[in-house]
Amino acid sequence: MKDDLVFEDFRSVIESMADLICCHGQSTEDDGLLRVQLQARGFDLDLIRAAENWCDKVQAAGSLVDVLSIFAPGTLGYRLSSPLERVSISDEVWQAIENCRNRGIITIDMAERLLEGVRAIDTRDWDDDDVRSFIFDACVAHALPSSHSKIERALQGDFRDYYC
Predict the structure, then answer these.
(1) Alpha helices of the chain — where are they, by DSSP H?
(2) Is 25 left (phi over 0), alpha (psi -120 to 50) or beta?
(3) What pTM did the predictor assign?
(4) DSSP character string of 103-115
């Protein structure tokens, strides 16, 4: 591996890793699968290993996923909502889902699945805490255990751990 690489040399690998991990739900634990996916995207193995070494240093200093979210691609489109889809969910819970989506806590696809699940179950007779509990259970099913309390606080409207 080249020892003289600087961050800008492998930044595109980091951005691709951020896309895979933050936007597509790839686990940070499975280095082999992540490496294969990066190679499939056309990256050189030396650059991948340099990015992995950088990620190891970041993980040792703090939370890797939080740092990678900075490099994740931005939203390329906007969601157009219909008043009819809001019938089965309160404005407060709707806003919590939108805020989580806007801050990258959940992906656009996850927000759509949550909204569809809430509509399909017909949560009109649920109180907001029951709906939030359902959403929390769905969100943490694929999240790291260390982020469970952050997600719970976010669904209550506390976004101090997330920045736009």
Answers:
(1) 7-18, 31-40, 45-61, 64-71, 91-102, 108-121, 128-140, 148-155
(2) left
(3) 0.48
(4) TTSS-HHHHHHHH
Half-sphere exposure of 122 (CA within 13 A, CB side): 0
**Does residue 17 contact residue 73 with C-beta atoms inside 8 Å?**
no
Report CA torsion sign: 98, 111, 55, 12.
negative
CA pair distance 22, 107, nearest whole angstrom: 8
Written as six digits, the tokens of 30 are: 């499975």
Q: What is the pLDDT of residues 35-74, one digit of tens each?
A: 999 999 999 999 999 999 999 998 888 778 778 878 877 6
Q: 47: Cβ–Cβ under 8 A, 6 or more apart, which residues? A: 5, 9, 10, 12, 13
Which string of b and e fits 88-101 if b means at least 16 CB within 10 Å?
A: bbbeebbebbebbb
